[in-house]
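Researcher: Following up on the earlier apo prediction. This time include the ligand. It's 2-oxoglutaric acid, with the SMILES given after the sequence.
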Amino acid sequence: MDSFLSRKRPRLSSPELSTSQKSSQPDDSTDMKLAILLSLFPVIKQDELLDILVSCDGSVETASKMLSAQATVDTPFTKKRTAPVSSLGMQTSLSSHVFTTAEDGTMKPINEIAKKRRPPPTKKGQTLHLYSPEDIAANTPCTIVHNFLPTHAANALLEELLDESKHFQRYDFQLFNRTVQSPHTHAVYVSTPEEHRQQTSEYTYGGTYRSNVRQATPKLRSVSKQVQTVVNEEIQKRIRDIYPDGKKLQYQSSNEWKPNAAFVNCYDGPTESVGFHSDELTYLGPHPVIGSLSLGVAREFRVRRIVAQREDEASEEAIEDKSTSPSSRSTESQNAWAARADAQGQISIHLPHNSLLIMHAEMQEEWKHSITPAQTISPHPISGNRRINITYRWYRDTLHPRYTPRCRCGQHAILRCSQRKQESRGRYMWMCYAGFAPGKEGCTFFQWAEFNDDGDPVWENKQIDDVAPTLANFSASQ
Ligand SMILES: O=C(O)CCC(=O)C(=O)O
Ligand SMILES: [Fe+2]
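Model: Understood. Below is the ligand-bound prediction.
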């Protein structure tokens, strides 16, 4: 395994730190805090920002003051880096490790290899860089198709979306008591007037209706059809080659995947990014599949597994259960969360122009993903420093807000999956949206979500609890 490229990730400890400080905050808030610091200090490496954040006991304010002070005296934190840290273009492959030739000389099918592939190829604190489709399929919940569109079609779509990106906006998200803007811009595209009406007056996002919904261009619509075909093929391959007994996952839809919304992001320059998150399940349902097309500048897509808490961490969780928001957790419990977040390291998937990444059904519940800020990028001949990303999504009719529960605030509840707590891991729940919305306190609404095998909601036998499990138990979604 030495031949694959790995890079040390944040040093979560330093000689000055006490044991309780050796790791950082809870998974969600660490990423949010890092996102803020990155937007304030874009030339500083993410790893260093994390170190500083940890040394400031997780206080963004203290870290920010310290960094501002440092900036005036040009410390190592603020020196411009000349070394090209970006490893884009360096080819590494795990294929020689994961593909074995059988005694009769034939290649073993990928499912046999996947069964043998233990333990996970990443290590705590390290990043494994993957480039080849075989490695990505075997080691992550994703598949990649390079050179997806004919060159002229990819370039034409990129040009069209660069023009569209004039209308993109940053969205707000909540960081404790502050409202923070996304470190990239975006807009949502739909094809029909009815879908436009639904997106702007029925589906909610963060407690409000979306305002930046636009009419899909003919090119976006035609590419959507091509994405649909390939994603459905890849879903079937994944089921056949990777999933246990060649069967779809429980709650994964057995219907054809039919995208009806395209979220388009623009990352203008190397520091624009999106922090670690899972995509919101509310309208996509459990085990959704998402098709993600990259255009323009190549960037790194990082994924990491969500690690369940160990049994000996239960007492700490009991303390957390009394709190109502992640921000009220103790530093020690925050540290434990960060240590778990990094327990299995990260995998970096390199996304060149015109590559289609399929996030398969196990992705959102079991993994988190991000676009990390880059130290260096190679400008693209058409887009310069910009990267455009389109995620094609399938909003399911059965999860239209006319059917889903409302919380005590009178708003549509959001669907979340318990990702960390051993006893409830993998269970779904409807919760008040407001714990995750800018400036909102929220109510304690909580209801277990029940689904049939196809992931369509079952509404009988509602069980409503008065006290919500702490939001701390669930990872941030977007
Ligand atoms: O830009 C990308 O490749 C990922 C975007 C993403 O994760 C999202 O929009 O939810
Ligand atoms: Fe996402």
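Model: The longest strand covers residues 261-268.
Researcher: Noted. I'll compare it with the apo version next.
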